[in-house]
Amino acid sequence: MAANTFTSKVPFYQSRRFQNIIKNVIVYVLLIFLSFVFIFPFFWMLDSALKENAQIFLWPPQWIPDPVAWGNFVKAFSNPQLPFATFLKNTMILEVGIITGRLLSCILVAYGFARLNAPGKDFWFTVLLATFMLPGAVIMIPKYILFNKLGWVDSYLPLIIPAWFGESYAIFLMRQFFLTIPRELEEAAVMDGANTFDILRLIIVPLSTPVLAVITVLSFKDIWNDFFTPLLYLNSSSKYTIAIGLAYFNGQFKVDMGPLMAASIVLILPLIIVFFLAQKAFVEGVNLTGLAGR
């Protein structure tokens, strides 16, 4: 019997434990490789920000700056023709105006789609989803003509006011999240004498912190990086945003790469800070917005 037991023993390389080890090794190798691929552009940007222009374009690359060109940061933010303090102020005006309007308007519309009963509600929600497929270039010229007729060109109104009338993707995410909130909470609030506004203010919004964080972070990123829309509507350089200001590093005949990378490093930090501050709620919101199947 001992001999039969010995001969029937499975070789180690065919065992489940060995297969799990191989699977984990492959997964971790792929994760490390993909992490390197995604982080390499940021590393190259940081490395270039600390080099002189002559070192940036060397081949093979010189990975360690020698000497370290800290002057690129001074040169980037001391140029009187590129007032980044003004660009930052203008960008924050848009951030506050657009995000505030988007949250307030989308909360109301999404609550209506998720909770209130109205004829044609499902049809209009389908129309809302259909707007996802509408390219921005299709409505670009009509929007510009409209805002020009209103006299809003070269102001922040064409950038801020549309956000106060809702945004389809944010409404979709909020509706999906609102559907996961138990209706029993609203029914209990109604029995205590709460009206619709009280339910929205005291129950729905406090419980919706994750999805609100998702929309806030995504909106902050989009506004911060938006180059074309401010360029289309703003004519005065005193109203330019950070994205437009960075474009001015591209000269007609050359690009001052060192200061450009230095400015990019500094101006990307707010995005990183905002994400890490809201990371927990952001990840939770992304996971929960797809749970409602109704």
Molecular structure report:
With 294 residues, this protein is mainly α. It folds into two domains: 74 residues, no CATH class; 209 residues, Orthogonal Bundle (MetI-like fold). 69% of the residues lie in helices and 0% in strands. It is built from 16 helices and no strands. It starts with a helix and ends in a 6-residue tail after the last helix.
Layout of SSEs?
Blueprint: H1 2-7, H2 16-49, H3 53-56, H4 71-77, H5 84-115, H6 121-130, H7 136-149, H8 157-160, H9 168-178, H10 183-191, H11 196-207, H12 209-225, H13 228-233, H14 242-247, H15 257-277, H16 279-288
Helix pairs in contact: 2-15, 4-15, 5-9, 5-12, 10-11, 12-16
Structural shape: flat
Strand content: under 5%
The name of the CATH topology of the largest domain is MetI-like fold
Largest sheet: none
Order of helices and strands: HHHHHHHHHHHHHHHH
Using only CA atoms, what is the Rg?
27 Å
User: What count of structural domains?
Assistant: 2
Mean pLDDT, as a whole number? 83
| Low-confidence parts | 290-294
- The CATH class name of the largest domain reads Mainly Alpha
The CATH superfamily of the largest domain turns out to be MetI-like
Number of helices: 16
CATH architectural name of the largest domain:
Orthogonal Bundle
What's the total count of β strands?
A: 0
